[in-house]
Amino acid sequence: MSITAQQLAELMPDATQVESDEPEMESSLHYVQLALLVSCLEWLWRDKNDFFIGANLTIYFNRQQLKNKDFRGPDFFLIKQTQKRPRKSWVTWEEEGKYPDLIIELLSESTAEIDKTVKKDLYQNRFRTPEYFGFSPETLELAGFRLSQGKYEEIINNESGQMWSESLGLYLGIYQQQLRYFTAEGKLVLTPEETAEQLAAQLKALGVEPDL
């Protein structure tokens, strides 16, 4: 018996409820680095409600994946011009066909080769993700690529060794052996904890004992 595309769609589960299917992070270094990337950007953009950050979350880009889950998602991805709300996974056909504007993979000895080849090709050719970065928390290797005429071209470091991200409007660079964000003026984007510590130090300098 033949079945129409509409009938098939009606038989499919509610894709918005599909769970992520990502493996555990490689090490505590990777966990800390991922949390740092998320917390800094969430804090910097705390007044915005039009973006979504995915952390070790599966991106489903075709319905066949609901059966075989044949591809893992990025370690970190950013999607702009979308509703900021919790999601169990990112399902492109439930999200107006949106794909990430930026992807960061945290490289490890076991994943680096796939991240640099298979995943990079997928992000370039299928996702059409404008910017892709790879960073190793262990070796501090950092590489960035920007989509140009359908192909990834390497992003060149500035004199401080940082790479400009058009999607973020920020630089990405290494600070104290971690991947961090920097403003266009080169100022480190602080975590909420660092912001509190800085404020406390400023108050103490003014002779005010902070009540933390």
TrEMBL record:
Residues 28-173 form the Putative restriction endonuclease domain. The keyword Ribosomal protein does not apply. This is Putative restriction endonuclease domain-containing protein. Keywords: Plasmid. Gene3D superfamilies: tt1808, chain A. SUPFAM superfamilies: Restriction endonuclease-like.
